[in-house]
Specification:
four-stranded parallel beta sheet, mainly alpha, two-stranded antiparallel sheet, 26 helices, single chain
Length: 628
């Protein structure tokens, strides 16, 4: 096992390079940016479709009103993804360009959006009551057009960088306002993008007879079908867990390749269900969030509670109970690094196999028992059992699937949990014995010192008596002198003794000393941003910093967000802290920080978890990074 882990670790630099790839990052970040559309639209879909499971159907007029909100949000998610992916890809391109010659991301977003419409929509026209109406068919503007959206975003970003980097733009005199100059600067790259997409669309349609978006779907459909099988699902989610086990954020590598399938299959299931067919697609976003990652990557919900309530080890119980609440909401980094699960040979097998077992069980429920696949998307922080029940539309079989998954995960993890518990108990017992031996040594040393003290007392007794006598004589002399001074100054203003004067001064300045002696007072007015992959783990450290700052009376502003969303807000902060699961992005973050004059740092796994649980240590860490 140790050799296997060592072999995997050797490939970590390669995995990190993949995670940092600007194309994969742009897909991931662009995909994350459109998730609110998918989640909010699913609310309307839930209200519309879930009652059907129990035999209730809305009147047609009401159902059409509900579905309009869904169609006008989820139905154009491809358009939105073309813009968001282009924006994030533009941010990556700008890292390679001088600060005074950056690509305008607004222009890039618009160009990408127009290119996507050219490649994915068909013109339609018809006559209604004698009125001629024309428009665009939206069949590929939704989830079916996601792959085309990514392609348009990349093509646009590459074209813009080519022209901006070489200053092939329309240049205006210095007297022209910057916003007007920027408009003219964008004309050439924007025009080239428009002509490129228009020409490509014209050629493609004339050769194949259909739009480019349809062609992309036809090319990738076999891959999507293969990914939805038992072997494909095992490879996808086994790899995701494997990457996480060696400390690389697995979804950053795997998810961009399947993101289009995750959403299109969700919409496909709903279409089949509404048509009265069996919704058979397995590979969907809610399945990944709530089944594969039940309690976080590695399906750690069950094992975290095993740590909290079944472990005999004090350390394991403490880690489990401290991590239980975050894990319930899918934020399991405190447990992954605190247990630890990452790079822990004992948990290698269950960490990889439990997610695979979960998805195989779910596929069995869908293929054999006739359960419909996931049709509704919820926020990934929804507790897994709730997410499963709601995502499956409250089907009766969903309430059988949940306990089945929990039981199987328990059986997979339990033997390995017992081995680890015995190891930790043995370590704690050895530590306790060492502590008992140390205390015995200290007690013996104290006793020896006491005996030595008695001998020393006998030898100095005479000297002590003589010293006492001399002290008494000096006291009498001082008393006589004080009496004479009082007689000579009976009509004078009473003097303040030096001791009293010192006490008054100390009392008067006590508040000032207390205020200035706080070692973190220099953090007043500072701003700290914490970044992780999804914005969940980062909140733990941001909250710990904010709480500790309040206790010290310090005005320290903290914020938490996902990496990829930081470009537009980063310049407003003094320090950016990168969580360990996003460590592979540190070089890019550092480049952004140098460009904006912002300090950046990255944390290690156990270090990060300790900082989230110790406010004083987190303040000290921030002060150290800022050189205070």
């Amino acid at each position: 096992m140790e050799k296997l882990i060592a072999l995997i670790e050797k490939g970590k630099p390669f995995f990190n390079a993949i995670a940092r790839n600007k194309y994969l990052k742009a897909i991931r970040d662009g995909f994350i940016s459109v998730m609110p559309i998918i989640i909010v639209s699913s609310i309307f879909l839930l209200v519309s479709a879930v009652p059907n499971v129990w035999g209730f159907y809305w009147p047609t007029e009401i159902n059409d009103v509900l579905m309009k909100a869904y169609n006008y949000s989820m139905g154009i998610v491809g358009i939105c993804a073309a813009a968001t992916t282009a924006k994030h890809f533009c941010d990556a391109q700008n890292r390679d360009l001088p600060k005074n010659n950056q690509i305008n991301f607004i222009s890039v977003m618009i160009a990408s959006l127009i290119g996507f419409l050219l490649l994915s929509s068909d013109a339609i026209s018809f006559t209604d009551n004698g009125v001629s109406i024309s428009g665009l068919a939206n069949g590929y503007m939704g989830s079916k057009g996601l792959l085309t959206a990514f392609i348009c975003a990349f093509a646009t970003g590459i074209i813009y960088k080519f022209f901006i980097k070489r200053n092939i733009t329309i240049k205006m005199p210095e007297q022209v306002p910057p916003n007007i100059s920027q408009t003219f600067k964008d004309i050439i790259p924007f025009g080239v993008c428009l002509v490129f997409f228009w020409g490509f669309d014209f050629a493609f349609r004339n050769i194949f007879g259909f739009c480019f978006a349809q062609g992309v779907i036809q090319v990738f459909q076999p891959l999507f079908s293969a990914a939805d099988g038992y072997l494909g699902l095992a490879i996808i989610y086994g790899a995701m867990s494997l990457f996480w086990f060696v400390g690389v954020h697995g979804p950053s590598i795997v998810e961009p390749a399947i993101s289009a399938a995750l959403i299109s299959n969700l919409e496909l299931n709903m279409a089949m269900y509404q048509a009265g067919e069996h919704a058979t697609a397995v590979l969907t976003k809610p399945l990944q969030d709530f089944v594969v990652a039940m309690g976080g990557t590695g399906a750690t919900l069950v094992v975290c509670f095993m740590f909290a309530f079944l472990a005999k080890s004090k350390e394991m119980r403490a880690v489990g109970r401290a991590s239980a609440v975050p894990v319930c909401f899918g934020v399991n980094e405190p447990f992954l690094f605190g247990a630890p699960m990452v790079l822990n040979p004992i948990f290698f097998i269950p960490f990889i196999f439990a997610p695979i077992a979960n998805i195989w069980i779910t596929k069995f429920f869908i293929d054999v028992l006739g359960m419909n696949g996931f049709m509704f998307s919820l926020p990934w922080t929804t507790p897994a059992p709730v997410g499963i029940a709601m995502g499956l539309g409250l089907q009766p079989l969903a309430f059988l699937l949940i306990p089945a998954l929990l039981i199987v995960d328990f059986l997979i993890y339990f033997p390995f949990f017992k081995v680890y518990d015995r190891e930790k108990c043995a370590e704690e017992a050895a530590a306790d014995q060492a502590e008992v031996a140390q205390r015995a040594t200290q007690k013996q040393a104290a006793m020896n010192a006491a005996f030595q003290g008695k001998a020393d007392t006998a030898s100095v007794a005479t000297g002590a008596v003589a010293q006492a006598a001399a002290s008494m004589a000096a006291e009498k002399k001082r008393a006589a002198g004080q009496s004479m001074d009082e007689n000579s100054t009976s009509n004078a203003t009473p003097a303040v003794s030096p001791a009293a004067s010192d006490d008054a001064a100390a009392s008067a300045s006590s508040n000032t000393i207390a205020a200035s002696s706080d070692p973190y007072a220099a953090l007043n007015g500072r701003r700290v941003l914490v970044l992780c992959q999804g914005g969940g783990t980062s909140g733990l450290l941001a909250n710990a910093l904010a709480k500790a700052a309040r206790e010290h009376g310090i005005d320290l502003e903290t914020a938490a967000d996902a990496y990829g969303n930081h470009i537009d807000i980063m310049a407003d902060f003094d320090l950016v802290i990168l969580a360990p699961q996003a460590a592979s992005y540190f070089d890019d973050l550092k480049a952004d920080g140098e460009r904006m004059g912002v300090a950046c740092c990255v944390t290690r796994g156990k270090q990060y978890i300790d900082l989230t649980r110790d406010g004083e240590a987190s303040l000290a860490f921030v002060a150290q990074q800022l050189g205070i």
